[in-house]
Sequence to fold (1303 residues):
Amino acid sequence: MTTTDPHSESTNSTAVEITDIGVDFGHVTALESISLSIADGAFFTLVGPSGCGKTTLLRSIAGLETPSHGKVSIGGRDVTTEPPEARNVGIVFQNYSLFPHLSVADNVGYGLQFHDLSGQRDPEARVAELLELVDLPGFGDRTPTELSGGQKQRVALARALAPEPDVLLLDEPLSALDARLRAKLRVQIKTIQRDLGITTVYVTHDQAEALAISDRIAVIQQGQIQQVDTPETVYRQPASRAVAEFMGNNNVFEGSVADDGQHLETEGKLLPLPETHDRAPGTSLTVSIRPESLVVADSQQGDPAVLSATVETVEFLGDAYRVHCRWRDKSVLVTTAATTPPEGTVKLHFDPEDVHLL
Amino acid sequence: MRAKASRLLPVGIAAMLTTLVVVFYYPVGSVLGSAISVGGRLTLDPLVAVLGDPFYTGSAHSLVTAPASLPERFVAWVNAGMPAVDFGLFGFTAYQALLSTVVSVAVGLPGAYLLARFEFPGREFLRSVTILPFVMPSILVAVGFLAMFGRTGVVNDLLATVGLGPVNVVFTLEIVILAHAFYNAPLVTRLVTAAWESVDTRSVETARTLGAPPLRAFRDVTLPQLVPAILTASVLTFIFTFLSFPIVLALGGLQLATVEVWLFARVQNLELVEAATLGAIETALSLGLIYIYLRFEATQISTHGQGQLRSRLPLFDGWQSVSDPRRLGVFLYCLVAAVLFVGPLVSLVVESLTTPNGAFTLDYYAFLLAQQASAAVGTINPLAAIINSLLFGLGALVLALPMGVLVSVVATHEGSGSRFAEALLTAPLAVSGIVLGLGMLRTLVFGTTVFGHRLTVTGPIAIVAAHAIAAYPFVTRNVTPALSGIDDRLVDAARALGADRPTVLVDIELPLIAPALIAGAAFAFAISIGEFDSTVLLAEGVDSATMPVALERYTANRSLGPNLGPATAMGTVLLAVTTGSFILIDRTGRRWER
Amino acid sequence: MNRRTFLRHGVGSVAGLAALSGCIGTPSDSGQTLTVAAYSSFTGDGTAGNWLKSAFESETPEATVTFQTTENGVNEFIQRRSQGAPIDADLFVGLNTGELVRADQQLDDSLFAASGDRIDGSETVKSALDFDPAGRVVPYDTGYISLVYDAEEVDEPATFDTLLKPQYENELLTQNAEGSDPGRAFLLWTINQKGPDGYLDYWNQLADNGIQILSDWGTAYEAYQDEEASMVVSYSTDQVYYHGDDVDISRHQVGFLNDQGYANPEGMAQFVNADNPELAREFMSFMLSERAQAEIATRNVQFPAVEGVDPGGDFGEFALEPPEAVTYSYDELVGNVGGWIDDWARQIVSN
Fold:
């Protein structure tokens, strides 16, 4: 794991520091003990299945949940006991949460009355500036009910950004939108974030979205952090089986290291392992191979880096096929850029160096 | 501007609690205290005396007098074939309250259906005036009911034309329950209409697409969303009818006496310890019911408001629509409502224009004009009474709205003890009007000596405070569901933008619950307009007299003979003024809503 | 006598929610304000109270009469006394026997001063009406409780026993003896007739015959007018209101059961700590004058308490006096009336 954080070199100050945070809801523990550092200007994503505690963590940063223990600092200031309005954060929710009785301009301008902005800008000008930023110039007089979902979410973004928050918090902001709009808005959010250089914490359950947009990702499961790293590392070198399975349709094999130390004994077969690894023969081992690391190809019989599998279902993705195969008792997933879909019995070839030890 | 709201909240809470203590808890406490304290010593004797008296508690008295014999008695009762058990005065009072509640809900629900689901000319008007019965003094309701349901009343005349009847319901439990429905069904209608209007059409549509016929969809999807409102209205109705007093003796007679009737007699005879004990038991039962209900309500609160609202059906949509069973049912209901609600009110107006011999007369209105023209000492001028009523009503509304909203904020607050606090703050609903009146007399009117000065709390401002306290629980009952229906994330968003909690309440939540605030305001106004007991005590003389006080005074005036003509004329004025006010409140409120 | 007038100041509290009306004592220049406590309908346009005020003031120019009306009648003053709250009135007008009994039972010391002998004209009061053996309360008028019935519907109910006959089933309306003067008088009348040991049994039979006990006189009379029943417990003065060509007089027949009427005299008394006892006695004297007695009778539609006064007019012509007046004396009621009424009410409610 040698990949470096692109921002860790340019900035070394920490925007958000979370130390040993725990949140209980009655008798249920939502977050056990979470510690995180989020670098200044970073786009930091909390990803995990629903109910894993990622939204609770985000709300704790905003001051909307009261941790049972632990500490939250923003910009070096301990805000653990501060109410939300004293934290200078901007938040955007999945359901937009625009104030239905206020116009778009009044929504965007709402936070300005509580903040003294540097440069003493005219609030109206600031609202116009933000509507410009989110590509909705001239929408100020409309009411929220007159807007489409995507427009509402851009207004919500503008509203959160208007008071120049120290941290922008986005809670599943794109989940209510259709796929095309989601992809488009994702780019827009990323662009705005980079232009403004604002530290952003983004919550999503969609691993693809997390990979696409983030500088760093924290994978959270059952109230605990599984892995924090760059998207590339989390994707290619998941820290655990759970991460491996959550971050994209991974193929996971369980078994033990063969006596030669070079193979994994699984499903009554031997699969080659990378040349250098630190596991002793006989120890039990779980590995993952990404679907795109498997190549559908004819190859020599007896090559250990080949799985002989049967095609069960094929999905056409436009630029590739996703092939669901059966190998022995296991379901194996393959992505192939072939022009025709494979069928029948196929050979799945892989480079032992692409086998990731968990 | 900003900082103001946050400073206002604690000041508001302090002011509210002070008012509550001075005008409510202290007077009530001064009376109820004697139920558990004799000569400054705590004792259970008065409670044991009442609960152990078979007259009050029937068979349950042995729970107090001989608890050990209970199993034996139970076995004997089972062996006797489980005959009907008598639970004394408390048992009968609860029984008639239960029946009244069932009938009020049965009559009120179709009204909510009509108002929430159908569009017709006059719907807004009808909605505005639903709570008119609330302000009607019981003596006039008795007049209207006798005219409608009496031996020679309109209903029997109608029945006779089709060869039926006569039906004798006067002086029976039935007419008391009908009168209770007259007062309380509108409450059911008003509260449930609001809930019905906010039912998400998509949930109903989903049920229909899943194969549910309309009635099933209603039962499975709509009804559960109405349950909290129906239960709120039921609990309120039960408590009101449990504490029912003048109408019982006016229409039913002493044989149907409730605990409150008995309590009043004890106060008249100055048997104050027994009165206090009865009042304390009533209050404990009512508060207990409220608490249980609030616990239930807390589990029911759900977030809606994002939903798609259903559009109303035109009530009359060509002649073919008349054969639609739903519309047929609605028309049938309108007939019932006409007899039960419109009938007594119209009868009242008719009575105000009729001599006891049945001839047309304007004498009673001439009487009002004469009272207006008279400068004699002790005369209540009708116009002054109208103006007082309106001013007090407005004052009570202005005070009760923030008080009610504050309690709603407490109510929607998730925390241990919130339900308990809310139940305590809802106590003005649960305390007998007679106990409160007695307490006010003994504390506020009699006064207390401070630094050599006799301090009394009476006059217009005390009246407004008393009205506001009687009224704010109605604001709370309207506002709490609306407030808890607001998406929490709107609040979160505003706080993240820098608004503190009180500012969010003023900027975001209150504008969003405008309809509930308007409904609460209308209730508050109605309570104030109809209030009599506290007003007459605190008014001290005729200068602060209100319409109901004037009306009561005119019932005792014999200058036109022993009849209620002048009172019915004043009652008609009261109806007209109140109708106008409700419409004004609704109109003003709706303008503000936009 | 240093008469103090009490000025009431409405002072808004900090929150503007409660008025603290402080009573600040300021001595007035003369002791000539007489405060009369009465029930609320005693005063107002055209009432006996207002006539008394103006007539007394013109006869005694240095005096001013003010009224203090209460919703709770004498009970308010009993409670004021027992709690040590001030009583700012000089005399009370509108007291009946039962109320005097209650006041004496509730309080260790009397609420009223004995002044009977010192009031000019008190010797002219009909002795049958004199209900206070201690001479504190002086009667000024009386009503006679009787039945009013519809002669077209029922025959004249001549005796208490005829009321139990099937002809009168569901035809009698009365009032709750616990809260209504005529209702209480009617109950006491039955006790007077049937004895303390027999009245409950008699009422059982009345109940079986469908007697209805409503809250107060107004409600019962309204129900009678609406023809819910053809007899109502009321006053023997009914025809004062209803006479003449346009009235169906058969609906306003007065029935004296057993040729009796139950007298319910109303009296007045001076409070023990009155600031102006002399003026109070003067006022009471004035109320017993022939002129005042006639006016009170006409305006209250009650019989004069003073012997030989003829109010004249409609009252003189149409008010009916029972052949025999019965009533319970103070001494007969003391110690009994509470139990009698309580037993009666419990029996009615329990059935």
